Amino acid sequence: MKKLLIQNATVATSTGVFNGDVLVEGETIAAVGQNLPAKGATVINATGEVLLPGGVDAHTHFDLDVGFTRASDDFYTGSVAAAHGGTTTIIDHMAFGPAGCRLTHQVGVYHQLAKDCVIDYALHGVIQHVDEQVLEDMALLRDEEGITSHKVYLTYADMLNDAEVLAVLQRAKQLGVTVCAHCENDAIVNSLRAQFVASGKTAAKYHPLSRPAEAEAEAIFRFLSLAKAAGEAKVYVVHLSTALGLQAIALQRAAGQQNIFAETCPQYLLLNDALYDDPAEGLKYLMSPPLRKTADEAMLWAGLQTGEIDTIGTDHCPFLLHPQKQRGKDDFTQAPNGAPGVELRMPLLFSEGYKKGRLTLPEVVRTCCTRPAEIFGIAPQKGDIQVGADADLVLFNPDEEWTVTHADLHENVDYTPYEGMQLCGKPVLTIARGQVIVKNGKFTGAAGRGKYLHRHV
Ligand code: URP
Ligand code: ZN
């Protein structure tokens, strides 16, 4: 069996940091410790470098079909980009299928879309209407496909009403599966959008004004209340962006509600709504929820520090600035919503989290790798450095200073929201199930090597 010895690294796990070695045999981690025997192994001298588990990004939208266009990264380009940034597993949110389709419909579509994925992947289901068949299919997907989480939207055309969300949560509770929710109050968002457009306020700067913090916080509180009424169903709030929303989560947890999990994203930690001021540039940041205030950024970092926020996903959903985002140049409501981020999540958290002293290395590991794997049923196989786990690893040069430039990235999109940002620490080697798939910026993996992850509750 092929052996790989990563020697003398600063090894960061979810529980600590130590100087030592990691021995890989075949696809798994065979030993973790000091002075491990090198006999028969290819040795990687990692002196001065930091070894982390491969990242687990539980929120991507590769090849997302939004009706009038598709996200510009497919499963091949998106996963190659992820690998360059040290992410070795994604859990993709499937797009809505045809109106009225069974829950099973999109699964077949997505196995085909993901056939060239270069890293391991799992899928979240999406519930776009509720009837007996859909509730039955939740069991079928759990048992036959290992799909143990589903997303509901509280806004957008395929949103569910409260009674439908409650029915989904009650069924999820029975089955032990997780319900993820995009939480924004649809009435607030759609009324404000319509009012802005009617009064000619169509520039990008009206996007955040049409989706105020209260819209997020109200929807989170309502979603959590419905989960409580369903017997404390297991719920996961995606892309938390506001201090107010975080307070809603903290309030319900303080009241004793169990099984609540929350995710934020790098864009809500590092960017703010001043970026909408320039109408042309502002198109880049048309995403939902929108970028918020600097005070929100600070509270989200604090939420990660206290553990009130569990995970960091990207909501990677890229559209080309030219031409796709230009659809919104005369009316922000017409642009496809979303932005890229899958390649930079781990580097951003290493640099702006760990190197800037906002998070410890184990906190970076927990939020970017371990907790998403645990919450979504792919741990202990994924998400940490431990004997028996998949050998998914990323080695960082912790002192390399670099400037983010979209042309140097591998995401299939003509911009990055982080253009010009100075980062410290860069991934130099990515290993996925024992195979080196990126070395010094060169992709060495192969299309289709990624494995579908059948999950368990
Ligand atoms: O604007 C965003 N986030 N687009 C992706 C789809 C979604 O809402 O998660
Ligand atoms: Zn999303």
Core attributes:
binds N-(aminocarbonyl)-beta-alanine, 13 helices, single chain, alpha/beta, 457 residues, binds zinc ion, nine-stranded mixed β-sheet, globular, eight-stranded parallel β-sheet
Q: How does this model look, in words?
A:
By secondary structure, the chain is α/β, with parallel strands linked by helices. 31% of the residues lie in helices and 23% in strands. It is built from 13 helices and 17 strands. The strands form two sheets. Strands 1, 2, 3, 4, 5, 14, 15, 16 and 17 form a nine-stranded mixed sheet that branches. Strands 6-7-8-9-10-11-12-13 form an eight-stranded parallel sheet. Helix 3 links the parallel strand 8 (120-126) and strand 9. Helix 3 runs parallel beside helix 4 (162-175), helix 7 (213-229) runs parallel beside helix 8 and helix 12 packs across helix 13. The longest helix has 17 residues, at 213-229. The two termini are 32 Å apart. The model has no long low-confidence stretch (mean pLDDT 98). Zinc ion is lined by residues 59, 61, 93, 315, 317.
The general outline is globular
Number of strands: 17
For the termini, the CA-CA separation is: 32 Å
- What is the succession of H and E elements? EEEEEEHEHEHEHEHHHEHEHHHEHHEEEE
Identify low-pLDDT runs. none
What's the main sheet like?
A: 9 strands, mixed
What percentage of residues falls in helices of 4 or more residues? 25-40%
CA-based gyration radius: 21 Å
Strand content: 15-25%
SSE class: alpha/beta
Give the distinct bound molecules: N-(aminocarbonyl)-beta-alanine, zinc ion
